[in-house]
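Dear Dr. H.,

I hope your travels went smoothly. While you were away I took the liberty of generating a structure for the chain from your last submission, since the lab meeting agenda had it listed for discussion. I wanted you to have the full record in hand beforehand rather than looking at slides cold. The sequence, exactly as received, is reproduced here:
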Amino acid sequence: MEKVKLNNGLAMPQVGLGVWKVPLDVTAKMVATAVENDYTLIDTAKQYGNEQGVGQGIAAGLAATGKSRDDLFLTTKIFNGDQGDYDRVRNAVNQQLAALQTDYVDLLLLHWPVFNRYNTSWKALEDIYRDGQAKAIGVCNFNVDHLTNLLDHAEIKPMVNQIEFNPRIHQPDTVAFCQGQHIQLEAWSPLGNGQLLDNPVINKIAKAKGKSPAQVELRWEIQQGFVVIPKSTHVARMKENADIFDFSLDADEMEEIAMLDEEKHSIWYQKFRWSGNPDGVDDYIAKPGAY
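The corresponding predicted structure, in token form, is as follows:
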């Protein structure tokens, strides 16, 4: 597994396992299977309602393989309803670490740029980082305006920005800004909810390379320097998603895939997007695990 180096020097695997919308009772087996098949990056969040299952799965996977916690790269995120109060963020992280059965996470992210809350939340993350409860800190779904505002108030620059990125949506302004600031980009929904797996351009390239359409999409992203976190509960698919380092796409193939851009978020993005309401009345702010 190839790695990228974050702006604090920490090495981060370039392919990992996402667990969004995976039920709690399925998560433990899924994560254990991933660890047993050499996945090291696991990405979860309090919002997903399955951190406990991730912790159980990691424990089982480590026991089965003889690996140690330090062999893994674990990411979780600050729930929107916990944002905006320093002590609430710190207390929430302590509870999340307990659920994950660990003393630290490798990466802790603000899940969304909640209006009037994220700068205060970031101060808590800076101290969490200084105290060693997180080896790296970053954000999710921050655009250029959010990042500019955060950098105006921050003492520590975010190390990662996790955004929706796949052949259908490129967010070029955010990507360029992060690259200029040496903030590592990480793609959630790197397969675009499967909407391009039947696309003739993707399939033509896949056939030429002897790879699957999913492998071609993921390769297109990692060649641009992204970290990717595809989700699968099936071991064969997990192995396939990680097997993308033995081929490359040429410039023409990269451009053909880039031309598929529609700059449209996934159909469920609006439900979870940043709320402009500082009172956070939306269900996704109020209820962890509510999809």
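Two observations you may find useful: The first strand starts at residue 3 and ends at 5. Residues 17 and 229 are 5 Å apart (CA to CA).

With kind regards,
E. W.
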